[in-house]
Amino acid sequence: MIKQKLTCEQAQIRIMGLIDKELSSDQEMELMNHLKTCPVCQKKYEAFVGLKNEAKAMKLKKLPEIYWDDYWDQVYNRMERGIGWILFSIGLILLFMYGSYEVLHDFFMNPAKPLLLKIGVGIFSGGLVVLFVSVLREKLMVRGVDQYRSVKR
Amino acid sequence: MATDQEIVIACRTGDKEIYRELVERYKVRAYYAALMYAKNRDDALDLSQEAFYRAYKALDSFDTDKNFYTWFYRILKNVCINFVTRKKTHNQISADREEMPELVSGDANPEEIFESNEQAKILWQAINQLKEKDREIIILKEFQEMSYQEIAEALDIPQGSVMSRLFYARKRLLKEVEHLND
């Protein structure tokens, strides 16, 4: 089978493999042959090598050792808290269901309690729940993006 | 030394302590990957720790024939994107409330990420001008030092596409650098 010559676009794509050391020796040789005869691709090659070297020269700032000391502890705490939150939530849901049943049964279904009181308590409880959820939601949202949360007050 | 896959299998039996080895192995890479999104030290630490916690919870879904870090990277990326989106919304709401323009630019503080160097500043600025797709693949290659196979796994694209995606991303980056140098 006759091997087709590389087009300039194919060669330029393959330059990536060359500078990232991802080409097989055959692919590399084929590309080098193209570069020898094509000044346009040769120029591109030099530009990409320059870019690669500039990126290599960018030194990521090292984090002071003190930050790594409790890194694992922070991850571990989250792992433990995760299980804690699941158990806490299940317990809370069960308690809430029992409490709601009791209140419904002993208070709202009790004909001896005045209707106005029932309506008042119902509205008051509903308002409390809405306020609680709203404040909780806001706190959680702000906490997620608060840049100063690690600052001790 | 245990391989990543052996550690994951041990973790699945409930051994939490052994997960520490994986965290120690990848914490620096994870931190720098998060830093590329969060662009400040404290958030990057927090996000990378959150990602390790979420990865631990999801270990059952990890395919032990695959590379751990590329799988973990996908979780980390989701955590970071959610954070950036929430932060943008929050800043937008604050700006609307206070009738002030957004003060924090998305690509602020190159000094927090790189050692001070004028050319690094320009290159970082140029990288941040790119579309997210281009920016990400360049970061994976140049700063996460992933191989093409790892990039393909991390981005869930065929390995054959990595070279061409890198080519177009670098071509656009060159253009941005030239533009900034003019």
Secondary-structure map with pairings?
The complex is a heterodimer of chains A (153) and B (182).
Chain A: H1 8-19, H2 25-37, H3 39-57, H4 65-69, H5 71-108, H6 115-145
Chain B: H1 4-12, H2 19-38, H3 41-57, H4 68-98, H5 110-113, H6 118-129, H7 132-142, H8 148-155, H9 159-181
Q: SSE order of chain B, as H and E? A: HHHHHHHHH
Q: What is the count of distinct domains of chain B?
A: 2
Strand-residue proportion of chain A: under 5%
Instruction: Please indicate the count of domains of chain A.
Output: 3
Kindly report the name of the CATH homologous superfamily of the largest domain in chain B.
Answer: RNA polymerase sigma factor, region 2, helix turn helix motif
Helix content of chain B: over 70%
Computed structural class of chain B: mainly alpha
Largest sheet descriptor of chain B: none
Spatial extent as radius of gyration of chain B: 18 Å
Query: Helix count of chain B?
Result: 9
**Helical coverage of chain A, percent range:** over 70%
List the quaternary state of the chains.
heterodimer
Distance between the termini of chain B: 51 Å
Architecture overview:
The complex is a heterodimer of chains A (153) and B (182). In chain A, 77% of the residues lie in helices and 0% in strands. Chain A has 153 residues and is mainly α. Chain A has helices spanning 8-19, 25-37, 39-57, 65-69, 71-108, 115-145. The model of chain A has no long low-confidence stretch (mean pLDDT 87). Chain A folds into 3 domains: 8-57, no CATH class; 63-113; 114-147. Chain A has 6 helices and no strands. Chain B is mainly α. Chain B has 2 domains: 1-108, RNA polymerase sigma factor, region 2, helix turn helix motif (Rna Polymerase Sigma Factor, Chain: A); 114-182, Orthogonal Bundle (Arc Repressor Mutant, subunit A). Chain B has 9 helices and no strands. Chain B has helices spanning 4-12, 19-38, 41-57, 68-98, 110-113, 118-129, 132-142, 148-155, 159-181. In chain B, helix 3 crosses helix 4 and helix 4 crosses helix 8 (148-155). The longest helix of chain B is centred in the middle third of the chain and has 31 residues, at 68-98. Chain B is globular, with a radius of gyration of 18 Å. The interface between A and B is large, with 37 and 50 residues.
